[in-house]
Amino acid sequence: MKQYEMTVLVHPDLDSEIERVTSDIVKLVEKNNGKITKQDNWGKKRLAYAIQKQNFATYLYFELDLPAEAPAKISNAFNISKELLRYLLVKHEDLPVRENKEETK
User: Fold this and answer.
1) Sheet of 54-66: strands edge to edge?
2) What is the pTM of this model?
3) Less Cβ around it within 10 Å: N or C end of the chain?
4) What are phi and psi of 104, to 5 degrees?
């Protein structure tokens, strides 16, 4: 399984139902044999530009372990959802640590 990061922007009218939306996302991930290692609700924030005539959205953040075929299935489910304004699902890659070497001349 590979590690992924996912950020979801939920329609602002669903602010009172955010727990249901979060549990629906968790169920979708688990249905596709995935595992959520971390989840966080970043709250309602103003968008930089309007999306579907909305200026605000509730941000949800997840760290996931998913099998290879799961990201495509999750993306397909999110694309037809009216509850979500946007989402971003990316593979998490650890960057190599560079050592800072001071050069003297």
Assistant:
1) 35-51, 54-66, 2-10, 84-91
2) 0.83
3) C
4) -110, 140
Domain boundaries, the chain: 2-91
Cβ count within 10 A of residue 3: 13
Amino acid, single-letter form, for residue 63:
E
Tokens of 52: 């579907």
Looking at residue 18, its amino acid is I
Check if the beta carbon of residue 37 is closer than 8 Å to that of residue 63. yes
Q: Look up the CATH number of domain 2-91.
A: 3.30.70.60
Give the pLDDT confidence of 19-35 residue by residue, as tens digits.
Answer: 999 999 999 999 999 99
Tokens 């009172």 correspond to 16
* 100 backbone dihedrals φ, ψ, rounded to 5°: -85, 110
